[in-house]
Specification:
With 105 residues, the protein is of the alpha+beta class. The chain contains two helices and five strands. 27% of the residues lie in helices and 20% in strands.
């Protein structure tokens, strides 16, 4: 049996678990949009987001694990770090329409 390790710090999911080098969390109302965006970012070789790997037997999404923590206060990044990530993200998504899903407000 695979051991699940509960992760703390998630902002939007009630329970997030780590299994090996993957993270599992329940599907939410905007999961289709999130999966489409993560697939797009992977195709564009954006290095700062997890990869969407599919859905497990319990109906949870499977994402790659990225070592780190979820900040709940001010993030202390340098301007250079923020600009690098922001520019790479914008280049990845600029002018692209994600047709697979629509974000639900």
């Amino acid at each position: 049996m695979v051991k699940e390790h509960i992760l703390s710090g998630g902002r939007t999911a009630a329970e997030i678990v780590r299994i090996g080098n993957t993270v599992r969390r329940q599907i939410g109302p905007n999961s289709d949009f999130t999966h489409a965006l993560l697939k797009l970012l992977e195709r564009k070789r954006f290095d700062y987001s997890p990869r969407f790997l599919g859905i497990d037997e319990k109906g949870r999404e499977i994402l790659t694990f990225i070592k780190g923590s979820t900040p709940h206060e001010n993030i202390k990044w340098t301007n250079d770090q923020l600009v690098t990530i922001h520019v790479q993200y914008l280049v990845s998504v600029l002018g692209i329409q994600i047709r697979e899903a629509i974000y639900k407000i």
